[in-house]
Amino acid sequence: MKTASRPLFVFAGGGSGGHLQPGLAVAAELQRLLPGAEALFLCSAREVDRRILSAAAADNSWLDWAPTAGARGGTGLWRLGEPLRLGRESLRAYRRLRTRRPMVVTGLGARASIAGCVAARLLGVPLVLLEFNVFPGAATRLLSLIATECLTGLPVGEVSARGLHCPLQRAGVPVRASIAGLHSELYISEPGLPRLLVLGGSQGAEEVNQLVLEALSGGVRGQVLPPDWQIVHQAGEAGAAGVRERYARLGWSVRVESYLGDMASELRAATLVISRAGAGTLAELACARRPTILLPLRVAAGDHQWKNAEYFETGLAAELVAGGLADAAAVVQLRGLMGELSRDADRRQRMSVAAARLAVPDAAARAASAILKTAAISAQ
């Protein structure tokens, strides 16, 4: 443990970049507002958590992290034996925190957040939840019974809000400062080097990979995308080699990466994006003003990605593809949208303007201010 003289803020959750990156953005803002503050992330044991948090901690001496939850994805709160597992994880988090009282514990959503949030309440520490999606997840709904407040990201509908049992405050989805800064930059709809950016995400990348490749392989390069378009494809750890090989068989020179570290630069260079519909990714795309084709992960809890995508489609900031790889109509629809949007600069420009309207570039500052307010009230 680090010295107890410095204020500590704990973030509980993980399992994907969509949960961790907003938390890191808030932690950085807290450190900026309160120099000397430290952040501890109680996360899952998944590889994506290790990669993201170890890289962030290497660059920031005030940040630390420790796995307290299992590596299993999804919430799975009602499976046989799950209460016992959650109890063990909560005890592990309690032992981690009891020698030093945090100012506030912030829950980042999903199953991996439960242990740290329960430990907070056992220690009498204020608990603030960050719920990024249009439809709150099961973990957020459960933890709202013991939370001080819930800061929402994308707008939560009136019906969904009834399932939350603590005060709500809209803050927006926090994004990294480097990406929030893109909101002040104009989108160039007719760049000299047009580029398609494909984002598979840390979960569900395989289906995105296959769906995009099926759509692109439906015709020669110039029929699907204009011949001068570049492609950058984030394919995930497991899929990168196979995706790279398949592009090579198609005779296309494509930059395929398992993970894109400098997302701000990638978004700045993108003319059109194909992406999943996690709230964190959507918030970054809105800040970057990028026109997007959305392929929501249909097995996401509560179908929240579909609901997120509908919000962006209704706001005219994105086009939504229904179905998945097993649905041939989805391949045809995606192929058609790629062809239309790659050739219609005016339509891309309108989508860019609409995306910018949905952005909340100061969301990290809003969330940090709310957390500091909770900390001050608690200290009185």
TrEMBL record:
Keywords: Cell cycle, Cell division, Cell membrane, Cell shape, Cell wall biogenesis/degradation, Glycosyltransferase, Membrane, Peptidoglycan synthesis, Transferase. One of its GO terms (molecular function) is UDP-N-acetyl-D-glucosamine:N-acetylmuramoyl-L-alanyl-D-glutamyl-meso-2,6-diaminopimelyl-D-alanyl-D-alanine-diphosphoundecaprenol 4-beta-N-acetylglucosaminlytransferase activity. Its EC number is 2.4.1.227. It is found in: Cell membrane. Pathway: Cell wall biogenesis; peptidoglycan biosynthesis. It is a peripheral membrane protein. One of its GO terms (biological process) is regulation of cell shape. Residues 196-363 form the Glycosyl transferase family 28 C-terminal domain. InterPro entries: GlcNAc_MurG, Glyco_trans_28_C, GlycoTrans_28_N. CDD domains: GT28_MurG. UDP-N-acetyl-alpha-D-glucosamine binds at S16, G17, G18, N133, R176, S202, Q305. Pfam families: Glyco_tran_28_C (PF04101), Glyco_transf_28 (PF03033). It catalyses: di-trans,octa-cis-undecaprenyl diphospho-N-acetyl-alpha-D-muramoyl-L-alanyl-D-glutamyl-meso-2,6-diaminopimeloyl-D-alanyl-D-alanine + UDP-N-acetyl-alpha-D-glucosamine = di-trans,octa-cis-undecaprenyl diphospho-[N-acetyl-alpha-D-glucosaminyl-(1->4)]-N-acetyl-alpha-D-muramoyl-L-alanyl-D-glutamyl-meso-2,6-diaminopimeloyl-D-alanyl-D-alanine + UDP + H(+). GO terms for cellular component: plasma membrane. It is an enzyme of class 2 (transferase). It comes from the Bacteria. Residues 9-150 form the Glycosyltransferase family 28 N-terminal domain. Cell wall formation. Catalyzes the transfer of a GlcNAc subunit on undecaprenyl-pyrophosphoryl-MurNAc-pentapeptide (lipid intermediate I) to form undecaprenyl-pyrophosphoryl-MurNAc-(pentapeptide)GlcNAc (lipid intermediate II). Belongs to the glycosyltransferase 28 family. MurG subfamily. This is UDP-N-acetylglucosamine--N-acetylmuramyl-(pentapeptide) pyrophosphoryl-undecaprenol N-acetylglucosamine transferase. It comes from Planctomyces bekefii.
